[in-house]
Design a protein that fits this description.
nine-stranded mixed sheet, alpha/beta, Spore Coat Polysaccharide Biosynthesis Protein SpsA, Chain A, UDP N-Acetylglucosamine Acyltransferase, domain 1, 29% strand
Length: 459
Amino acid sequence: MKTAIILCAGAGQRFWPYNEVRNKTAIPVMNRPNVRWLAESLVACGVERLIVVVGAFEASVRAALQGVSVPIAFIRQNPPSGTAYAVMSALPLIGEEPFLVAYGDICTPPDTLRRLIETHRASGALATAVFQPYLPQHDPRDWIGAYVRDGKLLRMEAHSADTSHRLGGLYAFEPAIRDALNAHPGLMTSVPVGGMPPMEAELAQTLQTVLEMGYDVPAVEPVGFLVDIDKPWHVWEANARWLDWQAAQLERDQIGKEVRIDDSAEIEGRLVVEEGAEIGKRVVIRGNAFIGRQSRILNGAILQGHVAIGARSHIKDYCLVTGTTVIGNGCIVGHDAEMDGVMLDGSFLFHYCEIMGVVGQKVDIGAATVCGTLRFDDGDTVHTVRGRRERPEFGANGTYFGDFSRTGVNVITMPGVKIGAYSCVGAGIVVYEDIPSRKLVLLKQELVFKDWGPERYGW
């Protein structure tokens, strides 16, 4: 297939606090915008032209796709009115040829797209789609779901507890899909009784229309993993899955030009080290590591597990980076700080911080800021997303620091809290609940003054 449509128009309201400075499709995954990974995966599968439907924060999408090796046409959908209408807006640029459709917030290896294309070609179907089987930790009510059996779609049903698979956001269509798109009722009618769908033209309803027109819809399962980046914890999950997948591909070290690795460094694992980077004295690396150009890993820093570090970052002074962690470009993890999760570009951790979760772009974490990670009931935190309570299947007890936020010294965050973009949390505060964006929160304390002096000691 020569043409693919990438959908990047939505406002991403469930993605707070990371939807206030970018389109969610442009969120970094292993230090590249997710939509960039997706576009390059499509090109690797033979796509020769991209049509990108943009809307909210379109500049972030355009910047993310700058320099992609195939022609790109941008179409603005304003206001966003649903994925089906977004596809319809792109049809005049396609003509009479089969095409792919990809939601720009889908994170999956290129092999998933290859499987989709191969299945569609072999089947001769009008429509083919990717569906992911529910894992035990998934709650089907959180997703647009479907009944799938023996590789075929039986019925769509959104946010139903009884479905077997969730929609994967990747499609292959023949030109005749226009008839099914034109028949869209303007909202998702394939819902449980009382399901209350919004007035939005969801592309999943078109699959149900195709079934009702008498066509089969082959269902393709993803290869490796698939993350639909819809909620804040999916940033962490997508980065972890992609990093694990990349680490599993490594068969040998890849060392760039002018790289310095000190003889005292203890390294157990594969390395990908880009030009001009340095691994200094007493550094310990236990796991596969990706180190960006001109980054410095210095003075006893400890990296445990799979770790990716962007360009021009400094990881130093006996800090600990653990788990499956991605640190962005231009970051600092300094003296005795600990990090487990994701740091976006330009964020700083210093002096005895203990951070687990997602740290947004250009976040300044005050000294001794600590994330609580374990509840007294040993359970997972229930989050509230747009008024609905959800228990995340990944990263429930992490803290989610919005872009350009700050904390003072000795801040403590309880498991699962979110701090809004452009907000400041003052020194010594224990954060028990989400803090809205653009707020300054200060601790008000009561002081008691009493007379005191030498006479208290018998003088």
